[in-house]
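Field guide to reading this record: the first block holds the primary sequence, the second block holds the structure written as discrete tokens, and the final block holds curator observations. Each block starts with its own label. This record concerns Flavodoxin, catalogued under organism Pectinatus cerevisiiphilus.

BLOCK 1 — SEQUENCE
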Amino acid sequence: MGKIAIIYWSSSGNTEQMAHSIAEGIKQAGSDCELFQVSEFPVNRIDEFAKVAFGCSAMGAEELDADEFEPVFSELEPHLANKLVALFGSYDWGDGEWMRTWQERVKNDKASLFDDKGLIVHSTPDEKDKKACNNFGMLFAKA
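BLOCK 2 — STRUCTURE
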């Protein structure tokens, strides 16, 4: 199965909650995962991971965080080809445009996008959302 990295940025803690629920699902599926805030991820380690789940809250006009997340993600993009990549994040307003844009970007990077779409949660994850994140993690681990 290989190691799985979860790399995330969270402005309000909502995407961080999602990351932890996804990690629980991965571990319940019997896989090993490491959880990183994007500012703490050593980019030279990306090739150690067979699968990577990226999480980022929608910011501004529905875009990825430009200050911390975007620079690291851009640096990692050349390493995503042929990797299985999952995307997740929370948003407060809009309709999820940031996720659709991000999905296309990952596909253009020649990565394999898990479930052909990202997992999004409006605002703070409730119990139903946390279960969805947990299930997302289990399925990602088994993919």
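BLOCK 3 — OBSERVATIONS
The domain at 4-142 is CATH 3.40.50.360 (Rossmann fold).
Helices lie at 14-28, 69-76, 97-108, 127-142.
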